[in-house]
Design goal:
This protein is of the alpha+beta class and about 270 residues long. It has one domain: Creatine Amidinohydrolase, CATH 3.90.230. The protein is about 30% helix and about 25% strand. The chain is built from five helices and 15 strands. The strands form four sheets. Strands 8-7-9-14-15 form a five-stranded antiparallel β-sheet, sandwiched between helices. Strands 1, 2, 4 and 5 form a four-stranded antiparallel β-sheet that branches. A three-stranded antiparallel β-sheet has the order 3-12-11, with no helix packed on it. Strand 11 (about 235-240) and strand 12 form a beta hairpin. Helix 1 packs antiparallel against helix 2 (about 55-65) and helix 3 runs antiparallel to helix 4 (about 165-180). It starts with about 25 loop residues before the first helix and ends with a strand. Residues about 1-15 have low confidence and may be disordered.
């Protein structure tokens, strides 16, 4: 679940907000939460198929979360539309993020379904997302999903101590745009640890704000990196339910996410 809009020009991070680096013990705790996240997403990948409702996926995610001794991160989070009602966010086609699971929302044979899921295990959080493509999805939708997955892979490959996030975000943005797609600006990734949303905010694009307050990666930083890539315009709008974010032009979107820990010599993917 994204941390929210990137701050507007001229807005600075409050001086009392600090990035919380994690110890190796904390990272190992987060790896355990990440293992639950991966188990749940892998199970939903098996179940996601034409004719299945997003409510059915949500029920299985909630059941498996409890079986594994974890607590859902998203359920009950306050928002404009009231507390979020689902264990997962299930967003179909033009829905970018925060889609609400429902028995009325049946997956179609040509759909792309983005599932965002997080949990807390023994006080530590894990967060990841994947987009699943149904058998009859158009080729351009498959290209969009492939490009979004690749953008996240690029970020993982480039993450290591001493690298400025602007260099990674620039590569992510360039790859998506070189294929004719666009990067969502209103929602970004985030730090994660004991809390679902921590500093820093982690954009998938380069902006004057990022260049002015760039993030230099260092050992112990744990971030949830989550590119959201659209087929058309990067602009998004909120639906009347107060949660579901959709593309402004109604064209498809895709979403992938991993929780990453920066290590002494590279990166550790905690939700892989």
């Amino acid at each position: 679940m994204p941390v929210g809009p990137w701050p507007s020009a001229g807005r600075r991070r409050p001086p009392d907000v600090a990035i919380k680096l994690k110890s190796q013990r904390e990272i190992e705790q987060m790896r355990r939460a990440g293992a639950v996240v991966r188990t749940v997403l892998d199970r939903l990948a098996e179940l996601a198929a034409p004719g299945v409702t997003t409510a059915a996926l949500d029920a299985e995610a909630e059941r498996l979360t409890a079986e594994l001794g974890a607590v859902p991160l998203f359920k009950g989070v306050p928002g404009r539309g009231g507390p979020f009602p689902g264990t997962i966010c299930a967003s179909i086609n033009h829905e970018v993020v925060h889609g609400i699971p429902s028995a009325r929302r049946v997956i179609g044979p040509a759909d792309a379904v983005s599932i965002d899921y997080g949990c807390r295990l023994e006080g530590y959080c894990g967060d990841a997302a994947s987009t699943f493509v149904m058998p009859e999805a158009p080729e351009r939708v498959r290209q969009l999903v492939s490009a979004t997955r690749r953008v996240l892979e690029m970020a993982i490959e480039m993450t290591r101590p001493g690298v400025r996030w602007s260099a990674i975000a620039g590569a992510m943005q360039h790859h998506a745009e070189s294929l004719g797609f666009s990067v969502v600006r209103q929602f970004v990734g985030h730090g994660i640890g004991r809390d679902m949303w921590e500093d820093p905010k982690v954009p998938n694009f380069v902006s004057p704000e990022l260049l002015a307050r760039d993030i230099v990666l260092e050992e112990g930083l744990v971030i949830a990196v989550e590119p959201m890539i659209n087929m058309g315009t990067p602009d998004v709008v909120m639906e009347s339910d107060g949660w579901t974010v959709v593309t402004k032009d109604g064209k498809p979107s895709a979403h992938f996410e991993h929780t990453l820990a920066v290590t002494a010599d590279g990166v550790d993917v905690l939700t892989d």
